[in-house]
Amino acid sequence: MASIARAHPNIALVKYWGKADDDLIIPVAGSMSMTLDKFATTTTVELTTGLDSFELNGTLADAKATQRTTVFLDLVRRLAADAGLETATASANVTSVNEGPTAAGMASSASGFAALAVAAADAYGLKLSTKDLSRLARRGSGSASRSLIDRFAVWHAGTSDETSFAEAIDAPEMAMVSVTVDAKAKKVSSREGMVATRDTSPYYQAWIDVTHKTLDEMIAACADDDFARVGQITETHAHRMHAVIQATEPPIRYLAPVSWQVFDEVAAMRDDGLEAYATADAGPNVVIICRPDDATAVAKRVAGFGAIETFAPGPGAHLLDAA
Amino acid sequence: MASIARAHPNIALVKYWGKADDDLIIPVAGSMSMTLDKFATTTTVELTTGLDSFELNGTLADAKATQRTTVFLDLVRRLAADAGLETATASANVTSVNEGPTAAGMASSASGFAALAVAAADAYGLKLSTKDLSRLARRGSGSASRSLIDRFAVWHAGTSDETSFAEAIDAPEMAMVSVTVDAKAKKVSSREGMVATRDTSPYYQAWIDVTHKTLDEMIAACADDDFARVGQITETHAHRMHAVIQATEPPIRYLAPVSWQVFDEVAAMRDDGLEAYATADAGPNVVIICRPDDATAVAKRVAGFGAIETFAPGPGAHLLDAA
């Protein structure tokens, strides 16, 4: 019998950039995100004998992606062994479908590993709490820990495998408008970019310190239901993330000139009384947060810069009834 | 009898951003620049009685600019008094002509105060060394200290009025190509931007620390006559300056989207074997350094982005024969 799970990407308002532990994927600081209501990944895990297999969007995945899946399944099998389950020795056929545009930087590794964590845990017979599923998903891709969570998530950095997990937080009502200015895969992966930042950016320690502070401020702004403050923190923090990255030697720039045009347009919206704030992950695409009622107006203002999608807060990773 | 002096703007390869002493204009770290061979300021100082007057480009300057000139002349008069000169009580008529495009961000305050320092010192009868003229010019505008110097200058940060001055350094043969993408005056002055950076950028201390290190590396690269290394240091350092500024709250961005297009084009030149490196002061305009023989090719590559000028290393501030 197959286990099927569904998870959505998330976009961070307080970003994750830098690992304190590369193997366990413990971040240098906590982060906060909104889980999206679109671009789900649906993943089926069926136990089998023989070798693990991984099919992505109807095609057998390449060796690298298959290897990454097997490494993740090994974690699940270890948990199964610890729980004394017979499944611990089983292989798995993993079938995954991304509804999002491939490689468009819409955090497909977050939804992918969140869905895989939930489906694999179920398939191997593990009974894991949301917290423990978040910890497990984290091992596949750090930000996957947050896609476990409904709507808004805080990923506590923690200092160990036990203490590094995401949980829900209330936040002001908001929508996100994404502007995909470039759908090509980025030149420098996040993994490589994080290493270069740690090794050569003179601002790295200050980035870690300020991100801790920023997360505290974000949690306070959320507790106050203060949309404007949440937006200001988000936009300033995004600038700081791109600044710490840009200070590497040689410089790494994830934002393209057109990305900055979108930031400029968002500032112009605010000048016009349309309250919106911009952020961007490690890539050229920009995500704008605004009040839900303003999403259409915001989308219209940036339609010329790229492909537009509008998001509401979405559900955390969850099991579907098996077919 | 009038004293006439001529000085040129300079473009920093290691930037000055941040004051350790606002009154004395002692910078937080040293810097290094090339004095340009164009866009001179020619300044005439004639002693008079009555009030100081300041005429800029044929028009009587506004109250603010006149006040800034008088404050500077007061420094000169104090030096004259210390030297026991009768001129110490005289006022001055100052007439200044900028050959550069007005407010196009071509460092006209550097050439302006360098020319004023030299002309005023002469008019008041002071016999100052280049070092002391550099110290004096610094009080009008920090980067003016470097325009005293022929070709290439290092401004030693120092810790006092005595120890903060520029002097000559040998550097590899190079040309500069400036791309004026926007000739409008910038929204946030350097003075305001420096204060905001100090007060709100979490990377400020790291910027100071790395700039000290960068200047040491630049001096070493110059001693080795290593053009490529000088270029790499220049471009990385420019990214770091804009990064420390961009990390302010709210973020300040001096570079425009089109500025980043020029940076991208310079990276593309290098991919094509045309060795060039980009930098930018606190404004949207970009300056490219290259080997003198490549200046025409570089200028051609960026002609579409704005008004282009090509510069060789120019002379330091100097007296002209009185008319």
UniProtKB/TrEMBL annotation, chains A, B:
Keyword Lipid metabolism among record annotations: yes
Pfam families named among the record's database cross-references: MDD_C, MVD-like_N
Annotated family: Belongs to the diphosphomevalonate decarboxylase family.
Single Gene Ontology BP annotation: isopentenyl diphosphate biosynthetic process, mevalonate pathway
Keywords in alphabetical order: ATP-binding, Lipid biosynthesis, Lipid metabolism, Lyase, Nucleotide-binding
Domain Diphosphomevalonate decarboxylase-like N-terminal, chain residue ranges per copy: 7-166
Organism phylogeny: Bacteria, Bacillati, Actinomycetota, Actinomycetes, Micrococcales
Gene Ontology cellular-component annotations: cytosol
Domain Mvd1 C-terminal residue range list: 180-303
Identification of the protein by name: diphosphomevalonate decarboxylase
GO-annotated molecular function: ATP binding; diphosphomevalonate decarboxylase activity
InterPro entries linked to this entry: GHMP_kinase_C_sf, Mev_decarb, Mev_diP_decarb, MVD-like_N, Mvd1_C, Ribosomal_Su5_D2-typ_SF, Ribsml_uS5_D2-typ_fold_subgr
EC nos: 4.1.1.33
